[in-house]
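Subject: for your reference before the review

Hello V.,

The reviewers asked for a structural picture of the protein, and I figured it would be easier to keep everything in one thread rather than splitting it across files. Below is the amino acid sequence we used in the manuscript, unchanged from the supplementary table.
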Amino acid sequence: MTEIEITENIEKALAEIRPFLNSDGGDIELVQVLDGKHVKVRLQGACTSCSLSISTMKAGVETTIKKFVPQIETVENVI
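And here is what came back from the structure prediction:
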């Protein structure tokens, strides 16, 4: 996959997750993709202070991104 395809597919994954985050007053944005394997995202709104944000990152965000782009190794929330 090219860098453009990786970014596009990550954005598709985030679009799939976004309605769930929005329903709880949160959101997410793609910050950076490093070496086509490492993704940095930023949780926003209510998600920044939610005690379940770590679970959201692992169970929701990371799993969905890896479904769309299997070569992704890490997904990290940055502030």
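For the response letter, the relevant points are probably these. The chain has a mean pLDDT of 93. Residues 33 and 39 are 5 Å apart (CA to CA).

Happy to draft the paragraph if you're swamped.

O.
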